[in-house]
Design goal:
One of its GO terms (molecular function) is arginine kinase activity. It holds the Pfam family ATP-gua_Ptrans. InterPro entries: ATP-guanido_PTrfase, ATP-guanido_PTrfase_AS, ATP-guanido_PTrfase_cat, ATP-guanido_PTrfase_N, ATP-guanido_PTrfase_N_sf, Gln_synth/guanido_kin_cat_dom. Its EC number is 2.7.3.3. With 374 residues, this protein is an alpha+beta fold. The strands form 2 sheets. Strands 2-3-4-5-1-8-10-9 form an 8-stranded antiparallel sheet. A two-stranded antiparallel ribbon has the order 6-7. A hairpin with a 3-residue loop joins β6 and β7. The longest helix has 21 residues.
Length: 374
Amino acid sequence: MGGCTSKDTTSGDDKKGNNMVDAAVLDKLESGFAKLAASDSKSLLKKYLTKEVFDQLKTRKTSFGSTLLDVIQSGLENHDSGVGIYAPDAEAYTVFAEIFDPIIDDYHGGFTKTDKHPPKDFGDVDSFGNLDPTGEYIVSTRVRCGRSLEGYPFNPCLTEAQYKEMEEKVSSTLSGLGGELKGTFYPLTGMSKEVQQKLIDDHFLFKEGDRFLQAANACRFWPTGRGIFHNDDKTFLVWCNEEDHLRIISMQMGGDLGQVYRRLVTAVNEIEKRLPFSHNDRFGFLTFCPTNLGTTVRASVHIKVPKLAANKAKLEEVAAKYNLQVRGTRGEHTEAEGGIYDISNKRRLGLTEYQAVKEMNDGIAELIKLEASL
C-alpha cells in the first residue's frame, strides 16, 4: 500500500527524487480512477474527482509521504462509500485541498473555501433538558467528539512506537480524572477474554475497523496502542486509536440530553488541560475523516418512532429538514432493529458545539411531536 513513509531528511537533490510518487502508486491510482469513473458510485469522491482534479493531485505528497492514493483508496475500493476519502495526516487537507474542499462543502451543507470554523463554544450547558421525560420514545442518548493529539499524524501514518507512546499518554491522562469521570483504562493488547466479552456485551468495545477503514490503512499494528477507558457508572468512555486518536463519549439510558452534554463538556475540558489537541483555524478540530471536522460533535439518540418509521421516506424528509442523519440501530451501514433508529446531527463544521447539539435537540423534539400526533 502507498504512502506515509517517515519524514525524509536527505539532501535537496535526493529529496526531489524521493518526492516523486512511485510508479506502482500511480498505476494503482490510474486504474482505480478509471473504475470509479465507470461505476455508478454515488460517493462524493466520484462526484468531485474530475479527470482535471485527479491529474492535478496524483503526483503530490505531504511531508509524511502521503499520496493521493492514501487519501482516496477507501473510496476507490468501496464504490458504495457515501464519502470515500480520509486524511492520512493533517497536512493532507491543504496538500489535496482541490478534492477535500468541495467534498467538505457538500457534506457539511455549505462550507466554502473562504469559510472559517468558529472558535470552540459549548454554550450554556444548562440550557438542554430531558427530551423525553416519560421515557416513551428515547431509549438512550449519546454525545461524542473526536480529538487528535498534536504532533502525531493520523492512523495510516503512525508507527508502532507512536501508537504505544500515545496509548501511554492517554491512559496516564485519563487515570488522573476524578469525580464521576473516574474510571479504568483497558488496553486491547493482552485483554482477557472475560473483559473483552464484558465490554462487547456493554456495546463499549470497538472491533477492528470495518472495510472502509481497512481500505484506508487505518488498522495497522492492531491491537497495539488501542484501548478503551470507562468510568465506574459506564456513562463516560474514551476510545484510544480506533478511527481517531481519541473518541470521547458521554452516554446514558433515557432522553436526558442535558446531563449527557454537561458530562461530555466537563470531560473534554479536563482532558484538554493535560493533552494538547490538533486544531486548525479553518477546520477547527482535525480528524481522520472529513465528515467529523470542526466541532467533531455527534449528538445522537436511539429512538422508537414506529409510525414515522412506517414511512421511511417521510422520516428521512423530516430529518433532513433539521439537518439530522438517520442510521440503523448499530450505526452506519446497518438496519433498524425493532424499529429503533440512531438519529444524530449531520453538520459538524461551520457552527459551534452548542449549535450542533441544539440542531439535534430541536430536530428530535420535532420528530417526537410528529410521532405523537400520528
